[in-house]
Every structure is written in C-alpha cells, then in structure tokens.
Amino acid sequence: MRSLNLSGNRLRELGPGLARAAPQLQTLLLSGNCLRGLPGGLLPAGASGLLPLLSRLEAADNGLQELDAGIAGLPALKTLDVSNNQLTEIPVELVDCLKLKEINFKGNKLKDKRLEKMVNGCQTKSILEYLRVRGRGCGKGKGKQDNVDKEEGQKKKRERRQKKDSGVGEQDELEEVNKLLIKVLHISENPAPLVIKVSPNVKEVRPFIVCCVVKGMNLKPGNALKRFLSAQTKLHEDVCEKRTAATIATHDLQLIKGPLLYDAQPPNDLKIIPLGRKEVKAKDLVRQLQLEAEEQRKQKKRQNISGLHKYLQLLDGKENYPCLVDAEGAVISFPPITNSDKTKIKKSTSELFLEVTSSVSLQICKDIMDMLILKMAELNKFTLENKEEVSVSDDESAVISGPPNLNPSQTVHHENTPLIVEQVRVVDIDGNLKVLYPSKTDLTMASSLLTVIR
C-alpha cells in the first residue's frame, strides 16, 4: 500500500501498527480528524526505519497541539500540511527533513509572531532558515541555537548513514554541486575596503547597522531586477515586520563615495534626493508623504495606505532622523523611509552595497542580512539557469507581485558561479570596531542550501 486516506474521521490517536503494516506508504492523509499530536504514536520514541518512503503527510484541521521531534524520523518527507491546528511551536528538528520542499503551518497561533507571519507568506526555504537560526522558533530563547549546534554532528552522521543504506551518494553529490555558492572576501584581501563610522547621535534613534558589499549579481536579463526588488519588498513585509524590526537598503556601489557616516540629523537639516523625487529636506518629505497619505485615504475611502506612507509612524516622536552619509556629505539612505536616487540600483549594476538598520537589535540586522544574501544567491542562480533576453531599460521602479518560487531541482544545471561577499567594518567615531560582517558566525543558517567559501 502506497497511499492511505483517513481524512474526515474522528481519529484521536495513531499507533505504530499503521507504520509496521504499510512500510511502503508514500502518502498519508489525516486531515479533518481529532489528533492532538504528530507523529505521536505513529513513530514511537526509539523506533527507527518506520515509514522510510513517506513523502506526503497532511493533517490539516485537526486539534494538533504538538508537532514533536519525531518528525525528523521521516527521511523522505517532501510535503507537510498541518494548517488550521493549535500548534504554538515548530520544532527545529524539522530542518533535519532534508527533502522537505513544501510546508503549510497557516492557521496556527505560534508564540513567535515573526515566524507566524513568515508561515503566512514566505517560502519553505525561508522558514527553515529562520528555524535553523532561531532554534525552536518559540520567540526569544538564545539557548535554543545551542540545541541546533549540538544536533549538527548527529545530523551529519544520519546523513552519511542514509547515503550508505540507500545508495543515493551520486544524487547527493549532484545536489552538493548544485548548492548556492558564496565566497567571502576578507578585509585583509581587499585593497580598498569600505568602512562605516557610527555617530553617537544614532544611539537614541536607530543604533544598529550591518553592512556588506556583494559583487557578481546579474540584473540585466529579463525581469531579474524586478525579481530582486520584489524579494526585498517581501523581506520588508515578512521578516522585517513591515520595517518595524529592521529596514533593508541596497545601493549601486560604483555610485558611493566612502568612507560613510551613519548619523542622526534634525529633520530640518537632513536633505536627500528620494527615489523618484527631487532633493528635499526630511521635514518637508515627511510632510509631503503625510499629505499624500491623507489624499489616499480620501480617494480609497479606507484607512489602509500603501507605499512609503505606511512607514511614517515609525518616525513619530523622533527629534533626529537616522541617515547614511557619503564622503561628499550626500545622504544616500534615510531609514526606514527611503534610499537616495543618487545610488539607485539599475540593470547595469553588478556590485551592490547592502545595509540593514534596526532599532531593536544587532542580531536582527545580521539575521536579515543573511536571508537577503541567500535570496540574492538564489535569484542570481535562477537568472543564470533561465536564459532571458537582456533588457536595456533601467526603468524598474514598478515592483511585480513577487519572486518566482524557485526550486533548484527543477532547473537545468549550469556552472555554479559564486557571489562575492566583501566584509565591511562598522566602527565607532574613534575607529574602534563595532561589527564586522560577514564574520565566521554569519551565513551559517542554511548549510543544506548554501556553500560558503571563507
């Protein structure tokens, strides 16, 4: 028996007898029952080798209160649907399901509200990356990451054992070759590294910033630039929590004059050329956006507003506004509102300067930068593997609805060219190091997807 549909019954629990009676089972449908835990008795503690071929497991619309660590005992699992249940946590052991491609946790009230937003809008890869970084995904709990580290050795042993038992070594070698590649260029190898100085003025406004340089991005073909901008927007909406947790800014490196100063200035002093607008004082820009927001509300007859207008409340009560200033005194970034048109990315851009700022924590900046770089590597690989006509137009201000759902297993294999990520130092006003990105502890959240050459 390869498929079993038990949906719509009143099952309250499952026993190991099912797994033993159907060892060839590939699809198990359990939606619409009264189950409280999964896998639960289906895979009892200490049991191994049960359901080695199960690739699709659906248990939506039950009363599930726990998805336990036993889920890692399903080595072939590709699709998992546990939507509309009562789950509050997602176990980190889920990342050990190496073949997992689709997960659905919608309709569960998770303790980690950022994770809850991600399961409603992000791709499976992004959710698994977040779990790997955060541990069990139950909110704060820094110690959860220790559990992940301890399990890494065990996971590698399991992987080697699975290869030996199943004879899939050749396929794994192919998957290894097909991983996304990133090469880190260290400060010592860079003849002219970019440096960011942080002014004491930002301490009470938006104190945390992480930066790096990425080279080798191909934005010329087809909709490559649109996909990149759309991916950035999606990160802002999801993991950045509509820019309340952090804000991403991306620039054309060739248009930046370093060193840079991260500062906070009075709204009447700060001047910027916003994307698609003329130079304006920050005070006047905020006022313009407020008026536009009011007009939007009147025309659409609703409270929800779109565009930059929805971020204005993040500046409420601020006497000074954060900004990133180049060596010529020009403001190139005004987080969380806008970048400067002066450093706007175009199709011809291949070298990018990335910044992530936050008023919450430095770790959030690092986590989001990790996700951004992973997404860039994914998009760049997609562009290389899907030949599109090279467009000469640089007018890419209109962002499409979202990036494609990339699946490396469905693409044609080409030479895997790594993105180059250059380390950038952030120092205080006296030159003392505050943060270096990427460090040895960065870009480690997705080892199953990414190979980092350090």
UniProtKB/TrEMBL annotation:
Please verify whether the record's keywords include Repeat: yes
> What PROSITE patterns does the database record attribute to this sequence?
LRR
Q: Answer whether the UniProt record assigns the keyword Transcription to this protein.
A: no
Domain (B3/B4 tRNA-binding): give its ranges: 205-381
List, alphabetically, the Pfam families matched. LRR_1
Coiled-coil parts of chain = 279-306
Extract the InterPro entries matched here.
Answer: B3/B4_tRNA-bd, Leu-rich_rpt, Leu-rich_rpt_typical-subtyp, LRR_dom_sf, Phe-tRNA-ligase_IIc_bsu, Phe-tRNA_synthase-like_B3/B4
Task: Spell out the residue ranges making up region: Disordered.
Answer: 138-171
Q: From start to end residue, where is composition biased (Basic and acidic residues)?
A: 143-154
Q: Name one GO biological process term.
A: phenylalanyl-tRNA aminoacylation
Q: What SMART domains does UniProt report for this protein, alphabetically?
A: B3_4, LRR_TYP
Give the keywords, sorted: Coiled coil, Leucine-rich repeat, Repeat
Query: Which GO molecular function terms does the record list?
Result: phenylalanine-tRNA ligase activity; RNA binding
The record's section on PANTHER family has: LEUCINE-RICH REPEAT-CONTAINING PROTEIN 47, PHENYLALANYL-TRNA SYNTHETASE BETA CHAIN AND LEUCINE-RICH REPEAT-CONTAINING PROTEIN 47
Its name, as the record gives it, is: Leucine rich repeat containing 47
Which species is this UniProt entry from?
A: Crocodylus porosus
